């Protein structure tokens, strides 16, 4: 008598692609939100509201009534970091629960997840160095890297696992990459402008020593170059009939013009806090719009199933048909 082996059913909790994509989108929003709230900490001079790290004070991990509103603002931003981390962890678990497993998603999801504590550590150094402007700028740029990874993850969740194919000629892809590099350079120089300006995050925080007017002019020159490259992309994509890429480039130009307008107004109105916060949000939007253009230069198409060969009729069947 043959022994029948019992197979123990495995318990799985598959996650739908729609849920995974929504979680990835939520991760983008959460990381943009923490950039804006981090700006609020600096703009309200609450950067040292919690004067130490990882504790809020030497005796407490949380803010105390004696610390006032600045302690509440700084501690609230630290709490938001945990919320962003929970969303990133949920994305990782959702990727692991996918059936079949999507290759390429896990490294991005893990990168976003580990980017959260990395940002927290850099944020801790900003406190321990009394808001050194170079460290504060690095903290902002680290957030931009995490946002870029979160965006890449979100886009990949909507694509099949097949090699990417270009949608525009190679010279235009190179132009898109160049535009992305210039966009990144504008973000970096923007942190230098901030580090030379009046919004230090605390009354006693040092500035980077750069001349605000001169470095602002360098930043403006970079913005003009970025807008010029973006406009060139619009016409170039349109000339080759790349509709999706053209629409992405038009959105990029619109976001850049809006961001540039905010930048000029805040400069000539002596950097009011509200406009500086809007400019920080605009920086995130410029990054996302730039990545959208870069993504539009290639695509991943589902592989069509191979046609099934026609089976020849059996000899007996063919004879009966005759």
Description:
It is a single chain. The chain is mostly helical and 322 residues long. The chain folds into two domains: 13-161, no CATH class; 165-301. The protein is built from nine helices and two strands, in the order H-H-H-H-E-H-H-H-H-E-H. Residues 6-11 have low confidence and may be disordered.
Oligomer: single chain
Spell out the helices and strands N to C: HHHHEHHHHEH
Mean pLDDT: 83
Sheet with the most strands? 2 strands, antiparallel
Q: What structural class do the secondary elements suggest?
A: mainly alpha
Give the domain tally: 2
* Integer-rounded radius of gyration: 26 Å
Number of E-state strands: 2
Instruction: Enumerate the spans where pLDDT stays under 50 for 5 or more consecutive residues.
Output: 6-11
The helix fraction, in percent, is 55-70%
The count of helical stretches stands at: 9
Strand content: under 5%
| Shape summary | flat
Distance between the termini: 49 Å
Placed side by side, the strands forming the largest sheet appear as 1-2
């Amino acid at each position: 008598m043959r022994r029948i082996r019992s197979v123990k059913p495995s318990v799985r909790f598959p996650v739908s692609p729609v849920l995974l994509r929504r979680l990835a989108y939520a991760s983008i929003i959460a990381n943009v939100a923490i950039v804006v709230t981090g700006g609020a900490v600096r703009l309200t001079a609450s950067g040292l509201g919690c004067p130490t790290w990882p504790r809020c004070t030497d005796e407490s991990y949380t803010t105390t009534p004696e610390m006032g509103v600045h302690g509440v603002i700084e501690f609230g931003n630290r709490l938001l970091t945990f919320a962003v981390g929970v969303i990133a962890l949920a994305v990782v678990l959702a990727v692991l629960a996918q059936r079949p497993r999507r290759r390429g998603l896990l490294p991005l999801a893990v990168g976003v997840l580990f980017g959260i504590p990395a940002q927290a550590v850099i944020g801790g150094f900003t406190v321990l160095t009394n808001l050194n402007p170079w460290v504060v700028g690095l903290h902002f740029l680290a957030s931009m890297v995490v946002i870029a990874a979160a965006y890449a993850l979100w886009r990949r969740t909507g694509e099949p696992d097949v090699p990417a194919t270009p949608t525009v000629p190679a010279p235009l892809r190179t132009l898109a990459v160049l535009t992305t590099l210039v966009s990144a350079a504008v973000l970096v120089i923007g942190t230098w402008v901030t580090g030379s300006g009046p919004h230090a995050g605390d009354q006693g925080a040092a500035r980077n020593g750069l001349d605000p007017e001169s470095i602002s002019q360098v930043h403006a020159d970079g913005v003009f170059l970025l807008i010029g490259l973006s406009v060139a992309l619009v016409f170039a994509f349109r000339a080759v009939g790349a509709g999706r890429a053209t629409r992405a480039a038009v959105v990029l130009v619109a976001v850049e013009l809006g961001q540039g307008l905010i930048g000029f107004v805040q400069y000539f109105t002596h950097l009011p806090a509200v406009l500086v916060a809007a400019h920080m949000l605009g920086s995130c939007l410029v990054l996302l719009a730039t990545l959208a253009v870069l993504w539009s230069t290639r695509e991943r198409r589902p592989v069509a199933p191979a046609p099934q060969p026609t089976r020849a009729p059996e000899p007996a069947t063919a004879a009966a048909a005759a």
